[in-house]
């Protein structure tokens, strides 16, 4: 199972990168969303999957899944969300100001 | 007592929140800001004093013992960098009102400024790898906000590239932390170090180490990861450029310094050897970049890259002299870079352009600016008796004791070119005939000059007064060479 | 001695205040006290029984950087030159520089230089020496650029700075090398442990690094090119820095280190060869010049070459001749520079083609120039000091005992001929200078000003120097035992006192002198006929052009290289970064054998529902690449996001699943908001190569993540620290939901700052939107 999930993360990373390498802002932002999904799956897998019950203490349960990765993912999800929202507003403003959503048209002057 | 360690984080954070509420009244915000930076400076000075007299301060947050809770480690390295950060913050806070537009100040500049400092201090202090990621995000988020402040077209354009590249490297960062957790089962840096040492840094660990290196290297703007740096650094206000130039890349290089002296130290034949090459290439490409442009702000921005090269060179060589050289250079470069960014900010303000080809004879009108630039150029290039020299001397001594001749020659050559790139501004912009068409409407305010003078004074002191500083730095290098000290102090074994 | 070195520097701080009264009293009058005082202080040490001594002051003892000032014969000679000539130059400048000039700047730089130069000479500590060394370069830079409104001044200043600081840095490399090898920073201690240096593998490199410093400073071939351009400085500066003192710092350095290196035969070869080539080339080139100061500049270069060569020979006679010539050169060249300045001042030009027959107008200057030029030419007359040292030079060229190396031996054989050749041209340009200016036709109509004799004050300094020429010429032995022997002895310990005599028989040296005068006279008389040769050699070849080209190429290529990759294209930046990550990571994986311990033991079961979700997600992710409709793109991305929450449920992470669900929903809403404002997607019009490179980079990163992940998962060396959280979540944390306890308690700091991040983001978004509103309002 773990390896399959890791392959899925690999696919998420790959498609994310492919999107980030595009010209249009929207595609690039979608890329960043995918990459964070990929990263979160990696964190989860590193705590081993499906070992024991959900990490909520219960008298009858003796084994729990690793809670630490889950805590880390929670932090990371929130942060990613913050960045994605900022990025969305930023790209909207950028596209407006520069009259284009094509990154290749936003190279700026040559290195003078 | 150990709570002292969190003060450098908490004070700027609270200040940031407080000034967010006084937003409507700019005058009050300014006064509060100046007050808070001074308080912060005094407190960190005190903490520094305590650390140097009584040893590292370890704070187990929430009283959760290491390695389970998040640990704050105020050791000599962290605290000296935090002190430098606070000096820079103080000068920037005094410079800011003269340089920012009212609109920028109104749009929470001071809040973002304080939160940037929070993130930087946190990154220097934390002893937990995932927590380091969180602090990185704090300072990056603040930097995103600062870079777009004003919302000009170029700013937006450059900032989106900046955000995207940093976002990618942040995601790589969490992934690498996760992978490392998968191997060693912990995120506490001391424990990671201990466990990595136990299995002798097996191949997979080195690979993860390299991934981390790329994360930090992208933030630190090392060859070949620095492409994103020069332009986003010059579009915002000079104060912001100064903060970025002095602090942001330095957090990246600090992380490399920490991680590769504490954790991944067992395969220097692979990692540290590569650092030396990367150092050389960073120096060369950095100065080539600096020579390529006539934009005075860009000249300074490119000069960040060779400086980072110097620092990583010391980490690569990895002996006592070289490491203390790195640390010395580190502090030196934070100071001089912020001074230079502030300075070119004033220069391009009074000249009305940052294009060197449109300037001449400025010294007839602005002798003070001219001489400040002149001195800064020598400080930057590491000409004695200024601060850069001590760092460079130590680095080269370390390099030559390890028979690293090639990098020594590259370092010397790039020093020359660094000097040339900045001196060009002096020779072409300040020397020359009086420009008769020049309108003398803009005058630099005292408030802009004094912070620069203060920074240069610190720099001169670091050079001439090296006797008061060097023994401490030497001690840090020795400490870094023996990761056991750090591990023991955190894990209390 | 510390006081002596630093007092000019300290005094420099007060100069700007003093110069406020420059209209009443020339600032130079106050400055004059400084060098004079230093001169008087040091002159007391002259004497037959002078013994070297050291004064130590600590500065940065923990780095071994201290002001250890060592006064031996060699440094005494230089110190007296610096302060003595310094006094005369300041005196001269009082009459040369008008009070309308920026006198404070001039004297500040000059005093700075004086300190620096004294520091170079007296420091026994290599790093202090280097500090002062760079300070001389800096003050020289400022003095050359004194009239910086002139294009040529700026050019000359930049050139001198680049070349001398290049040399300085290279010397620094050499010095650090030496201090690492010998584990000391004191030159005297290094000389004591010279065996370690001579046995080092890096000996050739060290020597080259140090010599580069010396050669650039002393304007040796091919670094001599900066000196003629340095003549843009005011004449007192040329006389002082660029003839008598600073350019001799390189000579000093070679002299100082020759006890270490002279046992190494390549030292002999390099230094003598460069010295002789410089002597020949520069004296040859001097005849080509038309600017008086340029003639003197090339002459200085060639004389420095001669001294350098003698230091290269290293024999007792040569070393003695070298120190003697250092002194003599300072006297006659100093006076000639001052005369050139006077001519410039009184006629308005330095172009020798416009000058001529000035003897009648300026008899006093002419007389002084006569002594100066004839001494420089080495005319055998008993009252010209230049003759003595030149004769000693010739003699030393005929007594080189080289036996070890055949190349060195052959070279030693031709040295006398080269020496004579160079000296012939020295004779020619000396005559050319004197006769061209003071004799021949008067060309008054070409002169900007009507010439007349200079005021006495201006003539005072050259008079003193010419008196020096004559007195040393008549009684050479008054400086011999008291000063020169001591100086030579500190370079070569075997030197003993020998009286200097005017006539010492019909030896080869005297014949060489006669040949120089004879052939020189013929050449000078026929100068017009053979002058065309300069269009053949060097013709268009010039090292100046090489320098200009180098600067130009540096600028141009820097631009080209940087523009090549700094295109501002995000895609390119990302591609380079990704490429580097992929290449390095794979390389490290392979070399460290990181992927070889894969096990399939410790894995969870796979159920059909897991597989279905995963396949759907993977397909959706791949679809994002190919979709060309923005709404579909957003929805497909949503599918991936919701898929993640399902996975969280499957993998026993209920909190995560909930959070993800909420965040995903909010994000979708945000995306749909942005949907309105962002333009429709376009088809990806990419070339196949672009698509391919994108694909390679994407797959590369994906593979690395998967591979490293699998390898990391396969390792089973350590237990995770999580058990502790399970154990203490309730007992210490007081909560049943372990994840929540971790978040708010154990890792509460993470959560605090995670909220901070969100807060900043919110504030930033608010600011961004407000800016827009303000803009639209405007």
Automatic annotation (TrEMBL), chain A:
Q: Which family does it belong to?
A: Belongs to the CPA3 antiporters (TC 2.A.63) subunit C family.
Q: Name one GO cellular component term.
A: plasma membrane
Membrane-protein topology: Multi-pass membrane protein
Q: List the protein's name.
A: Na(+)/H(+) antiporter subunit C
* Major location category of this protein: membrane
| Gene3D superfamilies noted in UniProt | 1.10.287.3510
Membrane-crossing ranges are 6-21, 28-47, 67-90
* Species whose genome carries this gene: Ornithinibacillus bavariensis
Q: Which UniProt keywords apply?
A: Cell membrane, Membrane, Transmembrane, Transmembrane helix
**Location in or out of the cell:** Cell membrane
TrEMBL record, chain B:
User: What topology in the membrane does the UniProt record assign?
Assistant: Multi-pass membrane protein
Name all NADH:quinone oxidoreductase/Mrp antiporter transmembrane domain ranges: 127-416
> What keywords tag this UniProt record?
Antiport, Cell membrane, Membrane, Transmembrane, Transmembrane helix, Transport
What domain of life is recorded for the organism?
A: Bacteria
Q: Where are the transmembrane segments?
A: 6-23, 35-57, 77-96, 108-126, 132-151, 163-184, 204-227, 239-262, 274-291, 298-318, 330-351, 363-386, 406-427, 448-470
Subcellular location field: Cell membrane; Membrane
Task: Extract the InterPro entries matched here.
Answer: CPA3_Na-H_Antiporter_D, NADH_UbQ_OxRdtase, ND/Mrp_TM
GO MF terms, alphabetically ordered: antiporter activity; NADH dehydrogenase (ubiquinone) activity
GO cellular component terms, A-Z? plasma membrane
What is an annotated GO biological process for this record, any one?
ATP synthesis coupled electron transport
Stated family: Belongs to the CPA3 antiporters (TC 2.A.63) subunit D family.
Identify this protein by name. Answer: Na(+)/H(+) antiporter subunit D
UniProtKB/TrEMBL annotation, chain C:
Q: Name one Pfam family in it.
A: MbhE
Q: What protein am I looking at?
A: Na(+)/H(+) antiporter subunit A
GO terms (BP aspect): proton transmembrane transport; sodium ion transport
Give the matching PANTHER family.
NA(+)/H(+) ANTIPORTER SUBUNIT, NA(+)_H(+) ANTIPORTER SUBUNIT A
Task: Spell out the family assignment given in the record's similarity comment.
Answer: Belongs to the CPA3 antiporters (TC 2.A.63) subunit A family.
Write down the membrane topology.
Multi-pass membrane protein
The Gene Ontology terms for molecular function here are: antiporter activity
